[in-house]
Design a protein that fits this description.
This protein is an alpha/beta fold. The chain is built from 6 helices and 5 strands; from the N terminus they run βαβαβαβαβαα. Helix 1 packs parallel to helix 5. It is globular, with a radius of gyration of 18 Å. 37% of the residues are buried.
């Protein structure tokens, strides 16, 4: 199968965060690729990746970066594909705020959808929601996934209310 989602990170040190997106895509059997490309160290490879992504079958790009976090915006400037930015709280980051603001504050015409700091799993869900608008199989997988989330919280609440840890609790 050809990948339809591309997960890109500025450095392999970001893998611990970005693999959460890969795990979810793998769980839902969505073909993806994962690579490290640096907007600063390998700009020619980033340009080749971004300009050729659509022709290779990629339909959504998830790009994670820490610090100045240029990677998502650079990629978005070179493709018409949707780019989802994942700000990473990296070793050279200011609690992830610098990354978050760098990805959020894109100039007009170069949007990057942005999730929370280290929220690669949410980026994968957003990518699937984008893909699901034109693919009933992916949409059905998302419906089932979200139903599973609903059931987990209902079960957790039932377990919590069944515990006698708080004997004076009413309701």
């Amino acid at each position: 199968m050809k990948p339809v989602v591309s997960i890109i990170m500025g450095s392999t040190s970001d893998l611990g965060v970005m693999e959460e997106a890969a795990k979810l895509l793998n769980e839902l059997e969505i073909p993806f690729e994962i690579n490290a490309l640096s907007a600063h160290r390998t700009p020619e490879k980033v340009a080749a990746f971004a300009s050729g992504a659509y022709d290779r079958g990629i339909r959504v790009i998830i790009a994670g970066a820490g610090g100045a976090a240029h990677l998502p915006g650079v990629i978005a400037s070179m493709t018409a594909l949707p780019v989802i930015g994942v700000p990473i709280n990296s070793s050279n980051s200011i609690d992830g705020w610098d990354s978050l603001l760098s990805i959020l504050q894109m100039p007009p015409g170069i949007p990057v959808a942005t999730v929370g700091v280290d929220a690669a799993r949410n980026a994968a869900i957003l990518a699937l929601q984008m893909l699901g608008t034109g693919d009933e199989a992916i949409y059905s997988k998302l419906i089932a996934f979200k139903e599973g989330l609903r059931k987990k919280i209902i079960q957790a609440n039932e377990e919590l209310s069944g515990k006698a840890r708080y004997p004076f609790r009413v309701g």
